[in-house]
Amino acid sequence: MEGTTLTIQVPSQFFYEWIEEHYVDVLKLAIKTVMGANGRLEYAVVVDRGNSQNQPYVVSFPQGTKAGKKLKEKQPVAAGDNFDHSPFDLPSLNAETTLQSNLIETHTFANFIEGDCNRLARSAGYAVANKPGITSFNPLLIYGGVGLGKTHLVQAIGNEIKNNLEDKFVLYVSSEKFVNQFLDAIKDGNVKPFTNFYMQVDVLIIDDIQFFAGKGRTQEMFFHIFNHLHQNKKQIVMTSDCAPKDLMGLEERLLSRFKWGLTTDLQMPDFETRVAIIKRKMQSEGISIPEDVIEYLAYTVDTNVRELEGVMISLIAHASLNRVDIDLSLAKTIMKNIVKDIEAEVGIDFIQKTCADYYDIKLEDLKAKTRKKEIVTARQVAMYFAKEFTNHSLKSIGYHFGGRDHSTVIHAVQTVNDLMETDNSFKAAIIELRKKFKMKSY
Ligand SMILES: Nc1ncnc2c1ncn2[C@@H]1O[C@H](COP(=O)(O)OP(=O)(O)OP(=O)(O)O)[C@@H](O)[C@H]1O
Question: In which broad location class does this protein mainly occur, judging by the first location in its UniProt entry (predicted)?
């Protein structure tokens, strides 16, 4: 602690994000209590180079991370303005300060693992980063569910431009911040400087535009800025949590402008991509973990990438705090604490749900009378795995599938075995599903 600044040393950016995510409220309260409203928190990422040349690298707080965002939502300003460095600080605003305060350096294309889930968005982003304002991807709108990499990707565009086209004024701003700045500008009679400022930008990256929903005046202001930038061949990049057609509360004239460019989505990465993401993350942390643990994590966490990262950081933290190696049993213990719906063993319910999800049908249909081909296949596959992974009798399995006869189960198992002989894509599906169950029954 020096003066009114408390510096916390952490071994990597990962730890910094973890602390912010979990302890920022406690820290803020403590700092406020001890140092008053001027108290300031900084992190020093101390990279261990294996000798005494540790070079602390100071990261100001908050760095515009998700945790920083959450903090703002939860407690607007609790311990003085030092907790929030607004990029909209009119007198001192210039491209350099704005860039530094807004882009996370590690959000690069190199760190953004490519997969089927993001190929189009990634390559469009890359094209835009190389020729901002010139390609037909203007605006570029990237949408997708929570934690799938929207912010990472659009910041990668910003970082790429910042590194290669130094004269470009790149601005990344969350929609929430834009709205707050606009409201402040109205309150302080600063609307003109606000508009002028945004109209000077060469590349405007605006995150989470669903936040504009229902905010008519902000939308109108954004509409003017948008038109001005677009007419002047400036690049606009946006993200939202859903497709434009589902963006309720946004004016039609704004939505129709989004269609001028390219709209593309991010999906949940498939298994192989998740494995690659885990490997890259672990590599950047300088940690190596066994292959079976990587596979286990990739299989078990299929919700979003942020959750996957959360599990990884937990694992690293537990292993380092308790001075134990990362192995499958540690991974399973951690997962049980984190992932709520994890079951102790592979039961019929789990098999049914997994198969229904895999074949994209309703769970009830597995137990219903329907004889539609895709449902029959999913049902037979689920019966086949129930026989393989549970101790239920054929009769009991039949009972769990809408009161069917044991001979139906025998027939299902036979059909699956036959199909595997003749149909390669069916066989691949069975292998993939079996891995899921195996992972679970480890
Ligand atoms: N393809 C990927 N390769 C590497 N890391 C990824 C990838 N996709 C997402 N991530 C990581 O996952 C985390 C969550 O991503 P990000 O914050 O960009 O998600 P988001 O879609 O913006 O989420 P939200 O909807 O909550 O704003 C980040 O740490 C990001 O670096």
Answer: cytoplasm
